[in-house]
Write a sequence for this structure.
């Protein structure tokens, strides 16, 4: 069930209802490398699929330390450095 609100006639962009799935949004893009929601072009299908997560509102990557969630695994990895720095800072205080 695709939960789209409407297509903007000027920009050809779609407004997406939160809760739309990645698979539904991928169907809008067909087999190409252009986002079927906002029209943005990508050099690879993989980059397009990573981008489509933004339109779903999903944050599938969770930090096991604090519970914060992210749209991309690379953002989670960067975030984990915050916790690592705190651990290192705590060790330096003990020396």
């Amino acid at each position: 069930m695709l939960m789209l609100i409407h297509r903007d006639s000027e920009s050809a962009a779609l407004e997406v209802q939160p809760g739309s799935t990645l698979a539904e949004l991928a169907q809008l893009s067909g087999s190409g490398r252009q986002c079927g929601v906002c029209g943005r072009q990508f050099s690879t299908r993989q980059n397009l699929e990573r981008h489509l997560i933004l339109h779903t509102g999903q944050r599938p990557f969770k930090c096991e330390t604090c519970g914060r969630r992210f749209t991309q695994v690379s953002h989670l990895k960067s975030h984990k450095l915050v916790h690592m720095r705190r651990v290192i800072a705590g060790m330096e205080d003990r020396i």
